[in-house]
Amino acid sequence: MKSNRDTPSVAIVIPIYQATFSDAERASLKQCMQVLGHYPVKIVKPRSLDLGEIKSQYPSVDLVSFDDSYFTGTDAYNRLMVSPEFYRSFLPYRYILIYQLDAFVFRDELLEWCRKDYDYVGAPSLHQEEYDALPAAAQTTYAGALTKNRFVLNGGLSLRKIPAFIRYLKIYNRFYPAWVGNEDMLFSQEATRLIPMKLFLRLPSWQEALQFSFEKSPAATFEITGHKLPFACHAWERYDPEFWSQFIDTQA
Questions:
Q1: Contacts by 190-194, CB closer than 8 A, 24 or more apart
Q2: Which of 99, 141, 176, 208 has a CA positioned 20 to 30 A from the CA of residue 220?
Q3: Separation CA 57–CA 20 (nearest Å)
Q4: Domains of the chain by range and CATH?
Q5: Rounded to whole angstroms, how far apart are CA atoms 91 and 43?
């Protein structure tokens, strides 16, 4: 990445908690390195985990270790992601892109998204199962649901502004009980539900967020965006893998 005063500083952060990978996870990592590997790439891992194979395959990546207790399950991982110390670990950068290995990036638009100056961007998602995998013909239904409901910006593939997150967590932790739940809800639903906290995170509309990433109901979303793929997608094996099979080849 060229050093330029006008170029936002950003790193790719890939959480990995085990040394064995599925074909889909290997394809996700390979695609990330092919498309975004010219940015600094940081693999976040348990302190005791040996990722020597990955380091030998991708020598440019940095391994960043945290206590093993943060990787024992979803709740533990959520605690890590709402910890100010996690974000302070990346203070040399203005932004980080969280890229879990159920994500898949299609093209490099990372700096363009950084320049939009949002504090947090992720795929808009609704928790109701009826919106998990709507067909293409249900685009109006899905758009209406995103308009009427308070959606989550999913954290599995998300762009985060480091100074804003540290400030937000500092204020939240001072006035509210410790957060229990999915970490992405704290930075999207709660950031709009708690009126004072609305002042501290700048978020995109669901329409713009769909240009960043698809997650649920990708076939309907593809119609909403006029058949334009996003920068990347998340949970493509979980929500309508048949739709994604035309764009993602795990054997490539």
A1: 191/120, 192/150, 193/150
A2: 99
A3: 14
A4: 10-244 (3.90.550)
A5: 16
